[in-house]
Known about the structure:
This protein is of the alpha/beta class. It contains 11 helices and 9 strands. The chain has helices at residues 20-28, 48-56, 73-81, 102-112, 151-156, 170-176, 187-197, 217-220, 227-246, 250-269, 273-290; strands spanning 7-13, 35-41, 63-66, 88-93, 97-98, 118-128, 134-137, 166-169, 199-211. Strands 1, 2, 3, 4, 5, 6, 7, 8 and 9 form a 9-stranded mixed sheet that branches. Strand 6 and strand 7 (134-137) form a beta hairpin. Helix 9 (227-246) runs parallel beside helix 11.
Amino acid sequence: MQNFPLVSVICLSYNHEAYVVEALNSVINQTYPNVELLIADDCSTDNSVEVIQNWLENHPEVDFLTNEKNLGNTKTFNQLAKKAKGEFIIDLATDDILLPNCIEKQVKTFQNSKFKNLAIVYGNLIEIDENGNFIENYYTEEDYPESGDIYKMVVGRTTKICSVSSMVKKSVMEKLGYYDENLAYEDLDLWIRTSRDFDFEYIPEILAKKRVLFNSLSSHFLMENNLRAKKLNASTLKILVKAFHLNRTKEEHKALLGRIRFEMYKFIKARNFNLLFQLFLLEIKVRLKSI
């Protein structure tokens, strides 16, 4: 379908039994006509697998992978991404929701973009609670999500990006080697590595709904003396070291200093003092490069 390139939506499930059907339905009910859906469950301890299997009775064409042990987001996603046949890929957790015209708008943006080196389009979204009630818009009037070369924005965290409303060109993911499987979370590393050499384009519209739960990934970064927090913050340190080596200018190093200061708060809050010391050493290196 020449005017409707195939889009692969990869849905990762982990203990989302209450939300997974709504997420999957949001994919198959898109206004865009050429979508491939791939699902993986990362060894859920609730009834997610059974719920998905019941849903698949009416959708037997959908690929479903079940992990026998918990592998984490990066490894689980990469398994399906390498099998995906689409020209574009969306990474969707099964507690989040795509609005009906999300994919249509993303593909049109790729097709009509002025950027010749475009790798990722991303848009606004709304955050919802466990019952689906509105909390807030992800981007407010105080945020300035950028288009084009956004490397300094990403490194400096002047404006954050959310993967829920993003679409990535598969050829770019292949070139970058997909998600780094040595990390405990994936998105920041992908944004940094992609924005170093490729353009992004922001779509100033609401494209999706992101569910914010008490046990969401973001809440674990700050947990005191918690093993998961240590793994997440160790991954952050690795990503920032990568960014240090990717930086090319003093201005980019200055931007990275801003993010390092932001991340220091998390390390202190989680009492990850060994990681904090390593981050402090990185800050010294970055500061010297920024002079």
